[in-house]
Structure formats: structure tokens, C-alpha cells
Amino acid sequence: MFKAFANDTDFLNIQGDALTVTNDPVRIVISGTLELTRDRVGLKAVLALQQAIGSIVDVLQKDPSLPEHLADEPPTSTGTVDNPFV
How many CB atoms are closer than 10 A to CB 20? Predict the structure, then answer.
């Protein structure tokens, strides 16, 4: 079962690797192209996608400290580190 934002190692492949949902503590990435056919294969794929999206929505809705916007870049370093190769 896909648990959104739980870690940075889980991922979900739907219909082989047609669609990939990649987990991360602050971002979920959905990539690929998924063809949903009107058959049992299509049903299985859309149910997997629905579960993943449901998990994402659930986590976001229950987070009381959800920011308005996530910073695109990591914070700027506040110090310096000696270069060990010099």
C-alpha cells in the first residue's frame, strides 16, 4: 500500500512502469502515461491510482501546519566547510 509522504524510498508503478508515483517526505512526483482501458486491466490501474491520490489527499488535509507554498530551493547555507581535498 502506498503511503504518501511517508519516506523517500517508496514508489508505485502502475501497469508495469507506464505510470510511476515517487514518494518523498515533501513532494510526490507522478510521471509517465497511463492508458485506462474499459476492462479489468484498466479497472485495476485506476484503482491503484485512486488509492495513491487518496493517500496524498488524506495526508495533506490532515496536516494542520500545511504551508501556503513550499519553497522551491533548499535554504541557503549559513556557514562554510573546509574543503578536504585541498
Answer: 15
78 located within any domain: no
Single pTM value for the model: 0.78
What residues make up the domain containing 33? 11-62
Q: Residue 14, Cα to own-chain centre: how many angstroms?
A: 14
Q: Domain for residue 19, yes or no? A: yes
- H helical segments located in the chain: 40-62
| Helix (H) or strand (E) segment spanning residue 21 | strand 19-22
Task: Residue count of the chain, please give it.
Answer: 86
Count CB neighbours of 55 within 10 A: 20
- Domain membership of residue 80 (yes or no) is no
Total tally of structural domains belonging to the chain: 1
Average pLDDT of adjacent 10-residue blocks, the chain of 86 residues: 91 94 94 97 96 97 93 71 82
Query: Is 30 part of any domain?
Result: yes
